[in-house]
Structures are given as C-alpha cells and as structure tokens.
Amino acid sequence: MGLSPPAPSVSPDEARLSEPGPSFEDWVPIQPERRPGAWQTWGRNLFLFALTAASIYVSGGPLLALGLLSILFSHEMGHYLACRYYRVDATLPFFIPFPVFSLVGTLGAFIRIRSPIPNRRALFDIGIAGPLAGFVVCLPVVALSVREMSLATAGPPTAGIYLNDPLLLQWLTTWVFGNVPDGMTVSIGPLGLAAWFGLFLTGLNLIPIGQLDGGHVMYALFRERATVVSRVGWWICLGLAYFNPSWILWAILILFLGRRHPRTLNDYAPLGRGRAVVGALGLLVFAVCFVPDPIVGSWATLRELLGIRF
Prior knowledge:
Blueprint (H helix, E strand, L loop, with lengths): L1 E3 L33 H23 L1 H24 L8 E4 L8 E7 L7 H26 L4 E4 L13 H11 L6 E4 L2 H16 L7 H10 L3 H15 L5 H12 L15 H17 L9 H8 L4
C-alpha cells in the first residue's frame, strides 16, 4: 500500500532546517542498538505474506493470488530497494490479509521506515519507486486478463458488485469489444480482478496528499506548497461526496494521513530536471490508474442496498 514513515518529532535540530543540511555523501543511517532476531527481521513478514497469499487464494483462486501478489510485491520492493540505496533504515514489506468483506482477500502491503529521510532527492526516489515498479508489473497482468473477459448481461444494481474501470482498462475493453451495448457489461476473471485492484492501489498511492507515495513526490517537488494541494483536495472530495458516496472514502483518507508532510533532514538539496520528468511520468500513471468512484453506485443505490427507506 505504500510507506509508513516515522512520526515527525520536534527537537533542537529543527532550528537548523532553515539552513542547507548535510550532503548525501555525509548521510549515515541510525544504527540499531542491538541486532534483531530472525523473527523481527523477516519472520513476521513471511508469516503475513503466507496468510495474505492464502486469503487471496480463498477469495479468488490461484490466478488472482499470483497476479495480485506479483503487483504488490514489486510495489513494496521498489520502495525497499530505494531505501537500501539511500541507506534509509526500512523493514521488509508487511502484507495485510483481509479475508472478510474483501473482493480480493487483502488490503495491500506497506513497509515501515525507521530512520529520517536524508533529503528531497531520496524522498522523491523512495516515493516514486513503488508505484512505478508496481505499474510495470501490472501491465502484463492487464494484457493477460483479456483472455478472461467476456460480455454479460448487466443486472440491477443490487444483483452484484459493479466496478468502474480506470482509464487503462477502459481503453483495453473498448479495443477488445468496441462500444459495449446498453444493458451489457464486461465480465472479468481472476487476472482481470488482480489487474483492476493493482491499478486501483497504484492510483490510490499516487494521490498527491499527505504521506501517500504521491504526497512524498509532491513534497519533494514543491515542499511546503504541497500542503495547499492536500487541503484543496480534501474540500474537493467533500464536495463531490454529495453526488457519490465513494468520495467520502477519499475525504476520510486525507484526514487520516494528514495534510502536512514532515520535512527531510535537508530540504534544500536540488532535485534536477530528470526527476521533474519522472514526476510528470508519475502524474500520467496516476491519470490512467485512478478510479474516483471505484464501485458503481449512488446514495440511492446505497440506501437500497442497506434497506433504508426515507
């Protein structure tokens, strides 16, 4: 699902943040006081991975498990390897099994960062590495999912769960089936569900708010101005919730993650033009992956599903 950064703290060193900090070459990570055992190092991660694999398998079968775990693993390892490159102390990925009330048996995964981020260059690279790695692995899963797709008769809203597709899947289904006739819908298989959820998580993590991956990238590019984007985004989500209840999810997410990003140890290290280009690429990936209203519905549909009459 992304990064779990250390909580910001106030210390005497904060007074130095208005001045240029140490260079990347001077950065030395905080060393743990004692060497952790195997359980703390990788045992819990392996145990949660096995539980998540079983949960996904029960929810949708081996193809769903293979496709989705590949996407999640590549996303988190993108973050982890970037942390290792910049000598930032981080855990291996923690996978989250969720067999109840879940379409795919998981809520994603995350890594926990246990030391400060040295500079904005490191923050940018660590933040963007996960979504781009996950998106690259998503593409073959999306391509293979075509073989499972078929046209089916669309039932009433309460007859099942209908998903709104991200732009990438919309383009794909249009290319395969053309304009879908009224009263029909595209039925997807396990790989299609893995592709949909993988794209959904990629778009979710690239939202440029708080401490999501997109929030890290936004802060690395624009520093304190990123807070304005988070605040505007929250009000937009709140306003759009009037039309579709799905937007409440995004409004709550912004509040939960916070609208102000913590500083790095050196906020004045230049990023260079190359990272600006990669940032634009990340914005393009966000555009083709993000699903503003993932589940088809409205307030009337929600009331009908819940049996509320008024």
